Task: structure prediction
Amino acid sequence: MGMAMSERWQDTLYTKTFDQEVRGLKRRREADPGCTAADLEGTLQGLYIMDGADWLGRGDVGDITMAATIAAYEQVIAEWKADT
Result:
């Protein structure tokens, strides 16, 4: 039981971060007609680089936040491309 409880905050953080990022990206798409899927892909490439350049270590919170942010970008970009 202790292990499950200790991992719950990680799931909560991941879900909260993912949902916030998806909402923000969708709002940006609606509000900024100049924003393209390619713009988001450029940001995503930067996130991949930041994720891979973690030589000092972000810790659990940073790793979870980064993973959720990357997943949100990947999902929104995939949905955007499917719409066009």
